[in-house]
Amino acid sequence: MQIYEELKARGLIAQVTDEEEIRELVNNGKAVFYIGFDPTADSLHVGHFMALCLMKRLQMAGNRPIALIGGGTGMVGDPSGRTDMRQMMTTETIQHNCDCFKKQMERFIEFGPDKAIMVNNAGWLMKLNYIELLREVGACFSVNNMLRAECYKQRMEKGLSFLEFNYMIMQSYDFYHMFQTLGCNMQFGGDDQWSNMLGGTELIRRKLGKDAYAMTITLLMNSEGKKMGKTAKGAVWLDPNKTTPFEFYQYWRNVGDADVLKCIRMLTFLPLEEIDAMDKWEGSQLNRAKEILAYELTKLVHGKEEAEKAQETARGLFAGGGSAEHMPSTELPAGKFEDGKIGAIALLVACGLCPSNGEARRLIQQGGMMVNDQKVTDIAASFDQADFLKEGIIIKKGKKVFHRAFIK
RNA sequence: GGGGGAAUUCCAGAGCGGUCAAAUGGGGCAGACUGUAAAUCUGUUGUCACUGACUUCGGUGGUUCGAAUCCACCUUCCCCCA
Questions:
Q1: pTM to 2 decimals?
Q2: ipTM
Q3: First and final CA of chain A: distance in angstroms?
Q4: pLDDT band, residue A41 (cuts 50/70/90)
Q5: Residue A173 and residue A18 in contact, taking contact as beta carbons nearer than 8 Å
Q6: Tell me, what's the pLDDT at A158?
Q7: Under 8 Å CB-to-CB from A152, ≥6 apart: which residues?
Q8: How far is the CA of A397 from the C1' of B19 (A)?
Q9: Closest nucleotide to residue A294 (Cα to C1')?
Q10: By the 8 A CB rule, do A175 and A187 touch?
Q11: What tens digit of pLDDT does each residue of A188-213 get?
Q12: Residues with CB under 7 A from strand B
């Protein structure tokens, strides 16, 4: 099976400008493609991860990837799929985020001569002259068409600033620029980027009379139509300091039944035959599939060792008997103890399991706190400092949140 | 440039002088049921020293015994006309 067919079978392809041409280029390793990443945070998240996987897949098939870091476009802010304007970021934040992105990407993709290229669009966008740009590029865009674009539609009700309106032009210019300087003939991106990407192919056609191609990756949605990779606390990050490998593992271990196979197909590198075999699984058997999904992804993102630790920890906690060594933990400073004891409420707050005393109190009253497998029923309960030595104690909040607290 | 409207707790959205820590829904958290799933049901959801006190309703002042509610100014946003 060739790469294009594989991508299709995995359900990764959402929209393409010219299927025949793209298939031809990609399958023969003739594509020089780019994917842009705007530095909106100091870590990549699951959405970016999909794009990186796609890069890797295509690179393995002999194509050349360009990872574009949006140091310039980040200054503008993409309005696609948003109902409000992004917070404007300072130049320093953008620079910091770019650096973080770069480090993380290097773990997935091989960069170097004849391998993948990494560029930052700040390099050319920041130098643009307004009037020149308007005459050269602005003349090629129809405002009428732009206003019809899907990515701005949502903003028509709430308001769209001129700053953001220009985002499409910046992104189009990127493609145009790299088409000429790097021979980049294809752009990939999330499906929400479709209209921005078409802007680029259109610009190339008008300015240079040449064809360039665009393809979007299916957005990872759960069966309820919500974007995956988000939790109540925010995105699922790839940075182990922001989302620990254990939490990362747990996120995937807990996806809904209806979504497991789709995730495995889209996100892992397991052979399709193997995945098709799993397709027949149902009911509690799917738990096995979820374990595979969680393990595979953790392995890709954090390495084999971390994946095994996370799996071992999860199995231990939920099935009983395993090691608790790798679960999230907190070292309690001696100051938290009074007369060698710490109260249950204070303990929950100190570990970050509850944001306030009130919430901690409620949790205990509702029977949601366990310490070393003993339910805590009294909000006035306290624990001896000595119990926290060595392994410490294991606190369980609700059914799924485990935390170890210890002192040195 | 002219006219009109709006800003409420995580979100949406009621409240329009005291009975408001503020209806209702969503989300979150917890409990029951389960397969670490979904659905369902129940409780809970400002802070603290929690049968009590304190701080909240865009901002700043003012009226009043008393303001989320009335007035003035400011800020932001939306709509209509140009």
A1: 0.89
A2: 0.85
A3: 56
A4: confident
A5: no
A6: 66
A7: A79, A146, A160, A165, A195
A8: 39
A9: B36
A10: yes
A11: 999 888 999 999 999 999 999 999 99
A12: A 156-159, 224, 232, 250, 253-257, 283-284, 286-287, 290-291, 314-315, 317-319, 355-359, 361-363, 366-368, 397-401
